[in-house]
C-alpha cells in the first residue's frame, strides 16, 4: 500500500475526518482551513509520543491512539478551550494493515467522542512515533492561563490522582491474568478522560489552571512560579486511589503524571457551583503569599521516598 492509499484508506475517509461547522476544508489539500467563531482565539498544542520513551514496544494500537489524542485534548481542557481539529504526524516502521486498522479505529472513536475533527497530517517511514497537534477555540480573554492565581484562592484538582501511575508496572509488563483493580488502573493510563467540560466551566471562574502531566507537586510548582505565589497542599485532602495502602497511593497521587487531571486555583465562592456540576472536584490546598509548593500532613506516609516529577533531560 503506498502512502497516498494509506492516508486515504485509514485517515481521510474516517468518520472523524468528515469535518464540522468550523472546518472549511479538511484533509486533501496543502493546508486545512479553519473558521473559528467570531471573538475567539485559537488554542494550539502539540505532543509527541515516541515508542520506548512514552510507550512500550507492542503497545495496543487502538489504546495508543486514544491515549495520544486524550493527552493532547487535555491541554485544550486546561486552557478552557473547545476542540476544533487536530493533525496527525505518523511515523511508522511499516504499513502493517492490522496495526493501522486498529489504530485508526481507536483514533476515530476517541475523536468522535470528543467532537474533534482530523484535519490533516503527515505520514512517513521510521521508528514508531506519533505527533498530534490539536486546535481549539476560546472566547477572547477567557483562556485559563497559569499565571493568574491570587492569594486566598483555593487550590483544586479535578479528580482522583495516581491511578495511571500505579498502572505502570502492567503497562510495561502486560499480563493476561489482570485483576479487576489492575484493569481499572490500566484504563486510567490508556484512556485518560480529558477534562474538557470542566475546563469550559472554569472560564471566568478559575484564576489559573494546567493539566497534570508531570505530577501534582511538579505541575503545582509550575503554576506557583508562573503566578508568583506560594501553594500549600494538604496531603490528607488529595484524592487518591482507594483499596491500596496510603503509603503507595499517596506518593503516586503526588508525583505520578499520567492521569491528565486538571489542577486549578479558584476563588472560594465558586467552589460549590463547580462541585455541583463536577462532584469529583476537590479543594486540596490554598494559594499563599510567597513561592514554591509546601506539602503539609504527609506524616502518615513519610517513610516513603518521594520522586520529583518526570523531566526528559
Ligand atoms: P503535502 O505533500 O502537501 O505535505 P501529503 O502528501 O503529506 O501532503 O498529504 C496529503 C494530504 O493528506 C494532506 O492534506 C495531509 O494533511 C493529509 N495527511 C497526510 N498524512 C496524514 C495522516 N496521517 N492523517 C491525516 N491526514 C494526513
Ligand atoms: Mg506531507
TrEMBL record:
Domain PurM-like N-terminal, by residue range, is: 28-138
Membrane-spanning parts: none
Q: Is Metal-binding included in the keywords of this UniProt record?
A: yes
Q: Where does ATP bind?
A: 121-122, 146, 213
Q: Where does Mg(2+) 5 bind?
A: 214
Q: Which family does it belong to?
A: Belongs to the thiamine-monophosphate kinase family.
Q: What is this protein called?
A: Thiamine-monophosphate kinase
Residues engaged in binding Mg(2+) 4:
30, 45, 75
Answer yes or no on keyword Aminoacyl-tRNA synthetase: no
> What's this protein's function?
Catalyzes the ATP-dependent phosphorylation of thiamine-monophosphate (TMP) to form thiamine-pyrophosphate (TPP), the active form of vitamin B1.
Q: What EC number is given for this enzyme?
A: 2.7.4.16
Q: Where does Mg(2+) 3 bind?
A: 30, 75, 211
Q: Which residues does Mg(2+) 1 bind?
A: 46-47, 122
Which GO molecular function, any one, fits this protein according to its record?
Answer: ATP binding
Q: Which GO terms describe its biological process?
A: thiamine biosynthetic process; thiamine diphosphate biosynthetic process
> Which keywords describe this protein according to UniProt?
ATP-binding, Kinase, Magnesium, Metal-binding, Nucleotide-binding, Thiamine biosynthesis, Transferase
Amino acid at each position: 500500500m503506498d502512502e497516498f492509499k494509506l492516508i486515504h484508506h485509514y485517515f481521510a475517509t474516517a468518520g472523524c475526518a468528515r469535518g464540522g461547522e468550523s472546518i472549511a476544508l479538511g484533509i486533501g489539500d496543502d493546508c486545512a482551513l479553519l473558521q473559528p467563531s467570531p471573538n475567539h482565539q485559537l488554542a494550539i498544542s502539540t505532543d509527541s509520543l515516541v515508542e520506548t520513551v512514552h510507550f512500550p514496544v507492542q503497545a495496543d494500537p487502538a489504546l495508543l491512539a486514544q491515549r495520544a489524542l486524550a493527552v493532547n485534548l487535555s491541554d485544550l481542557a486546561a486552557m478552557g478551550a473547545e476542540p476544533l481539529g487536530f493533525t496527525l504526524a505518523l511515523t511508522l516502521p511499516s504499513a502493517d494493515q492490522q496495526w493501522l486498522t486498529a489504530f485508526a479505529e481507536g483514533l476515530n472513536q476517541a475523536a468522535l467522542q470528543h467532537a474533534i475533527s482530523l484535519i490533516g497530517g503527515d505520514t512517513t517511514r521510521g521508528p514508531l512515533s506519533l505527533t498530534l497537534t490539536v486546535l481549539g477555540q476560546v472566547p477572547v480573554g477567557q483562556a485559563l492561563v497559569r499565571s493568574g492565581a491570587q492569594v486566598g484562592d483555593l487550590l483544586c484538582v479535578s479528580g482522583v490522582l495516581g491511578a495511571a501511575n500505579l498502572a505502570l508496572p502492567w503497562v510495561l509488563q502486560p499480563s493476561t491474568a489482570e485483576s479487576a483493580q489492575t484493569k481499572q488502573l490500566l484504563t486510567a493510563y490508556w484512556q485518560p478522560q480529558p477534562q474538557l467540560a470542566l475546563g469550559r466551566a472554569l472560564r471566568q471562574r478559575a484564576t489559573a489552571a494546567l493539566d497534570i502531566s508531570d505530577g501534582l507537586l511538579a505541575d503545582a510548582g509550575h503554576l506557583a512560579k508562573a503566578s508568583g505565589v506560594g501553594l500549600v497542599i494538604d496531603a490528607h485532602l488529595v484524592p487518591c486511589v482507594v483499596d491500596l495502602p496510603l503509603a503507595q497511593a499517596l506518593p503516586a497521587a503526588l508525583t505520578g503524571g499520567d492521569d491528565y487531571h486538571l489542577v486549578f486555583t479558584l476563588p472560594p465562592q465558586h467552589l460549590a457551583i463547580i462541585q455541583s456540576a463536577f462532584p469529583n472536584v476537590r479543594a486540596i490546598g490554598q494559594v499563599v503569599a510567597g513561592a514554591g509548593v509546601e506539602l503539609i500532613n504527609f506524616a502518615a506516609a513519610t517513610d516513603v521516598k518521594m520522586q520529583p516529577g518526570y523531566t526528559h533531560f
